[in-house]
Amino acid sequence: MTEPLLKVRGVQTFYGKIQALKGIDMDVNQGEIVTLIGSNGAGKSTLMMTICGTPRARAGSIHFDGKDITKTPVHKIAQLGISQSPEGRRIFPRMTVLENLQMGATVSDPKYYGEDLARAFKMFPILEKRQAQRGGTLSGGEQQMLAIARALMSRPRLLLLDEPSLGLAPLIVKQIFEAIKELNRTEGLTVFLVEQNAFHALKLAHRGYVMVNGRITMSGTGKELLSKPEVRAAYLEGGH
User: Fold this and answer.
1) Which residues pair with 12 in a beta bridge?
2) What is the pLDDT of residues 168-181, one digit of tens each?
3) Which of 65, 91, 156, 157 is the most buried (most CB within 10 A)?
4) What is the spatial order of strands in the sheet that 190-195 belongs to?
């Protein structure tokens, strides 16, 4: 069996003396969309940030494409082909849309820049119309599209998406999830998605994990998890 593209084993992460991750085991295979669902404060974003190197795992290991990246410097992790669209978007508000996208392209080969820009504009046509506008003046949905497009400008082998649907209108959420699905289908892009919107995430994902209080409590295909009564009760029927 081939090695997973991303392999997380026994990862423990702390904030000071508080343990946020309590021995996480998780795989993301090449070409998969894998989602991690769980309530607010379960540790989902901490896992994603630990993969990127801040904070560091205090125990356990993280391997990407067979290479141990547990202690690799943050900028080198990005150069290996891991790109993150962080929670809360974190675009550069004073820069234009185009300048934000150029920032995303800094770690990739310049010869692909035109092609990658065209792809970003095709995926989210509103960004082409707004390219001269400052990022901070965009709507929440447009900022989220910009954050994802900026992450894609680095030509990642693994795209990490942290709460892409947070605070957005259902129509915008649908558009963003469809764009992710299309990238995976046409380009084989590998995606690790952290999401509170369990229904959308599990419908989109090939496989999923459920996190409760810093531990993985369940895993399975998206379909399997959607059909589990405990998942439905906790995450799909009005409860979080």
Assistant:
1) 22, 59
2) 888 888 989 999 99
3) 91
4) 82-85, 158-162, 190-195, 33-37, 207-212, 215-221
- Please state, in angstroms and as integers, the Cα–Cα distance from residue 49 to each residue in 26, 68, 72, 87, 162, following that order: 15, 16, 13, 10, 9
Return the domain boundaries, the chain. 1-81+157-240, 91-155
Q: What span, in angstroms and rounded, lies between the C-alpha atoms of 64 and 96?
A: 33
Give dist(CA 122, CA 120) in Å, integer.
5
Q: What is the pTM of this model?
A: 0.91
Summarised one tens digit per residue, pLDDT across range 126-183 is 999 999 999 999 999 999 999 999 999 999 999 999 998 888 888 888 989 999 999 9
The structure tokens 């560091």 sit at 56
Residue range 1-81+157-240, CATH number? 3.40.50.300
